């Protein structure tokens, strides 16, 4: 059954979004964590192992500031962007399917993500550039822009509005709820930072290799939460703004 109640909520509720986000993940742990490990955790681990090896044994891998290192870093960033886009779109699809009372299929989720790969990347680039410029100017404008566009990818996946249409849709949906969204994301960020601080202490206890593996697993979990949460936020915002049910959202794919 869908976790969203049938009655229309009067405002964006942080606790409700948290509960629904973790409920989606708990009902689909293999799909969510499997996709996250495949598209986030494993690539992160391989890249970090390569960096560690290059630092430990310069004779095997190029020196730290070589052209080869720079090229590998650029390639890694581009590949990471593509994989992150696939993961987010796939988990958005999975979250909506779950909230509609269905069991998400991994093939369907990846297929949806691949079909929308370029627009998702386009949104990611525009949001990063726009919010980044705002951060460099006065910080606050960057936060406002990032919150304004925080559900652009779910809007794209669910309503197929294109890059700019989805960003405009996100702006309209988040209007009036951005303080609540800000509080929601602050809690997630603080939790992620706390976990990373704990991991930094594990290096001395278990050694670098184990610490990197644990870091990759944590990266996978964080990726799941930060991908599912915008989808659940999108559903919550549509109910607050329009009273749109999850069933109506799912009809887009029928």
What characteristic shape results from the CA principal axes? globular
The stretches of 5 or more residues where confidence is low (pLDDT under 50) are 1-6, 59-63
Count of spatially separate domains:
1
Mean pLDDT: 84
* Spatial separation of the terminal alpha carbons: 18 Å
Rg, Å, rounded: 19 Å
SSE order in H/E notation?
A: HHHHHHHHHHH
Number of helical elements: 11
Largest sheet, strands/sense/barrel: none
Helix percentage range = over 70%
Number of strands: 0
> Which structural class fits the helix and strand makeup?
mainly alpha
What does this protein look like?
The chain crosses the membrane at residues 30-50, 70-93, 105-129, 135-157, 178-199, 205-232. Keywords: Membrane, Transmembrane, Transmembrane helix. The chain starts with 13 loop residues before the first helix and ends with a helix. Helix 1 packs across helix 3, helix 1 packs across helix 10 (208-242) and helix 2 (29-56) runs antiparallel to helix 3 (67-99). 81% of the residues lie in helices and 0% in strands. The model is unreliable at 1-6 and 59-63 (pLDDT under 50). It has 254 residues and is an all-alpha fold. The radius of gyration is 19 Å and the shape is globular. It has one domain (25-253).
Descriptive labels:
254 residues, mainly alpha, 0% strand, globular
Secondary-structure blueprint of this entry?
Elements: H1 14-27, H2 29-56, H3 67-99, H4 106-115, H5 117-137, H6 140-148, H7 152-159, H8 162-174, H9 178-206, H10 208-242, H11 246-250
Helix pairs in contact: 1-3, 1-10, 2-3, 2-10, 3-4, 3-5, 3-7, 3-10, 5-6, 5-8, 7-8, 9-10
């Amino acid at each position: 059954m869908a976790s969203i109640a049938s009655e229309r909520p009067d405002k964006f509720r942080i606790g409700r979004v948290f509960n629904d986000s973790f409920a989606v993940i708990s009902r689909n742990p293999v799909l969510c964590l499997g996709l996250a490990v495949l598209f986030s955790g494993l690539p992160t681990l391989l890249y970090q192992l390569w960096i560690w090896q290059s630092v430990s044994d310069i004779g095997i891998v190029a020196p730290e500031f070589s052209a080869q290192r720079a090229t590998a870093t650029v390639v890694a960033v581009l590949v990471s962007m593509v994989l992150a886009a696939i993961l987010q779109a796939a988990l958005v699809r999975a979250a909506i399917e779950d909230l509609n009372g269905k069991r998400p299929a991994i093939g369907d989720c990846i297929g949806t993500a691949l079909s929308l790969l370029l627009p998702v990347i386009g949104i990611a680039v525009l949001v990063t550039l726009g919010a980044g410029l705002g951060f460099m100017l006065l910080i606050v404008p960057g936060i406002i822009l990032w919150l304004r566009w925080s559900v652009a990818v779910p809007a794209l996946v669910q309503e197929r509005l294109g890059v700019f249409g989805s960003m405009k849709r996100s702006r309209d949906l988040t209007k009036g709820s951005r303080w609540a969204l800000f509080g929601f994301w602050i809690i997630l960020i603080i939790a992620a930072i706390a976990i990373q601080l704990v991991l930094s202490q594990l290096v001395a206890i278990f050694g670098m290799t184990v610490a990197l593996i644990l870091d990759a697993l944590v990266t996978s979990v964080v990726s799941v939460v930060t991908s599912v949460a915008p989808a659940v936020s999108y559903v919550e915002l549509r109910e607050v703004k329009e009273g749109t049910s999850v069933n109506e959202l799912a009809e887009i794919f029928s």
